[in-house]
Automatic annotation (TrEMBL):
Record's catalysed reaction(s): ATP + protein L-histidine = ADP + protein N-phospho-L-histidine
Name of the top EC class for this enzyme: transferase
Database matches in PROSITE patterns: HIS_KIN
Keyword Ubl conjugation: no
Gene Ontology molecular function: any one: phosphorelay sensor kinase activity
Domain of life of the native organism: Bacteria
Organism: Paraburkholderia azotifigens
Name recorded for this polypeptide: histidine kinase
EC number in record: 2.7.13.3
Length: 459
């Protein structure tokens, strides 16, 4: 069960505090009871002594003349009852209440004990005094007992206020902690309102001023997240704007071509030309749309498919697709793919996306290399990695352009059709497969070598 922060904090405070109150209450009750017992026993003894003083020999016999002061000592508003008994030599009752019980043991010292009389609890002291008279010695035992009302009252008066004070403190804590928390949690609630009241597109950092320092890391983390979101949204927005702009060009062209085709009288040959132009425009749009979809797909999959993909099969299939395009430009398209069992070039990922990666690189090489050039796709195992390379002997990419070729819609100056998305797609797919892409120069400083390093499949 999820308890509220209030309840938790309250528990943390109240449980130990309550335990503390109980323990101190017990300890102080014990101390107070001890004090009350001492006071009561002292009063009993002093009363017994006063009675003992007034027992004397009279004509060879002992007489007890109990002074009222001996019992007045107990006078209190609590109406305690006092009993006494004077016994000579352990048997002859000289006076008092015969039912008052004697001590269980004889002692020259005063003996204190608890007893009952008429069903009431009493505290009793037995005190022995030796009385001498012309060679005679008689032990006289004075027993004084009293009910416990004043003792209870004393106990209560001493102990209860203290206990009540501690309970009050406990109640105060129980009341103040939730109140304090409500006040202290206000900044958090403000933070929450600040977040919930935002418009969907309002991606400003949250204000941290006035917040307790414990909350700062949370706000910092949220702000960091917001900053990333902001960058992401900005790139996304830029991407959509760029894509729209790129699609507008062939669309405008198509529009012009359609206007041209409908406005005038044309003979069949001109019309065929116009139609061919229109086909190129729509092809360009189709290519662009396909590339955009591919890029969107590569970007949006947080982790791609985890199939076991044989790169040699992917390369073979791409070369098969592109062999006609290469032949058209008299390009010698070849492959050098390791497929010995020990060297298997398996990687983990999506066959479709890896196909797109290889296709984009080989397609670039075929397009940008001069007619009669050479394009080779290489794939080999390198330790924990599979390395795929496309090598051509074309113009290569000048150093100043290398930093930009991976940007979306960036295009070189070569008069070749394209969307400027190919290498962005390649990089996105490589990253998605936890791989890297690097550009290099060919063996004799001509052409381009694009190397893609992917983690090899692990069994
Ligand atoms: N094999 C290559 N040889 C020379 N230049 C290349 C090669 N591959 C890519 N480039 C350059 O990089 C640019 C970006 O490539 P890419 O992202 O595939 O877009 P696109 O091919 O549609 O222009 C190209 O316009 C071209 O200038
Ligand atoms: Mg390309």
């Amino acid at each position: 069960m999820a308890l509220s922060l209030r309840a938790r904090l309250l528990l943390w405070l109240m449980v130990p505090l309550a335990a503390f109150v109980v323990v101190t209450a017990l300890v102080s009750y014990d101390a107070v009871r001890h004090t009350a017992d001492l006071a009561q026993d002292a009063a009993l003894l002093s009363s017994a002594r006063t009675i003992g003083e007034d027992i004397d020999w009279d004509d060879g016999r002992l007489t007890a003349n109990i002074p009222p002061a001996a019992l007045e000592i107990f006078e209190s508003p609590y109406q305690d009852q006092v009993f006494y008994k004077v016994v000579v030599a352990g048997k002859e009752l000289l006076g008092g209440n015969p039912e008052l019980e004697g001590p269980s043991r004889e002692s020259s010292q005063p003996v204190f004990y608890d007893s009952t009389l008429d069903g009431r609890q009493i505290r009793v002291v037995a005190y022995v005094r030796q009385l001498y008279d012309s060679g005679k010695v008689e032990p006289v035992m004075v027993i004084v007992g009293k009910t416990q009302a004043s003792r209870h009252a004393m106990l209560e008066q001493l102990w209860r206020p203290q206990f009540l004070r501690e309970c009050l403190m406990l109640a105060l804590v129980a009341a103040l902690v939730p109140l304090g928390l409500t006040v202290e949690l206000r900044p958090l609630m403000k933070l929450k309102d600040d977040l919930t009241d935002r418009l969907p597109m309002q991606i400003e950092p949250m204000r941290a001023e006035g917040l307790p320092w414990e909350l700062r890391p949370i706000v910092d983390a949220i702000n960091q997240c917001i900053a990333q979101l902001k960058v992401h949204t900005a790139t996304q927005r830029q991407f959509i704007a760029d894509a729209a702009h790129q699609l507008r060009t062939p669309l405008t062209l198509l529009d012009t071509q359609i206007q041209y085709a409908t406005r005038r009288e044309h003979d069949g040959l001109v019309l065929a030309d116009v139609l061919e132009g229109m086909r190129r425009s729509t092809r360009k749009m189709t290519d662009m749309t396909n590339q955009l979809l591919l890029l969107a797909r590569a970007e949006s999959s947080p982790s791609c498919v985890h199939d076991k993909v044989d790169m040699s099969a992917v390369v073979a299939s791409v070369l098969e697709d592109l062999i006609v395009a290469a032949q058209r430009r008299a390009i010698d398209l070849g492959a050098d793919v390791a497929d010995g069992d020990a060297d298997k070039v398996y990687v983990e990922g999506s066959a479709n996306l890896l196909h797109a990666l290889v296709a984009n690189l080989v397609d670039n090489a075929i397009r940008y290399t001069q007619e009669g050039g050479q394009v080779t796709a290489l794939c080999k195992r390198d330790g924990e990695h599979v390395v795929f390379q496309v090598v051509d002997n074309g113009p290569g990419i000048p150093a100043e352009a290398r930093a930009h070729v991976f940007e979306r819609f960036y295009r070189g100056t070569a008069p070749v059709e394209g969307t400027g998305l190919g290498l962005s797609i390649v990089r996105e797919i490589a990253h998605l497969h936890h791989g890297t892409v690097a550009l290099g120069q060919g063996a004799d400083s001509t052409g381009l070598v694009v190397s893609v390093q992917l983690p090899a499949w692990r069994n």
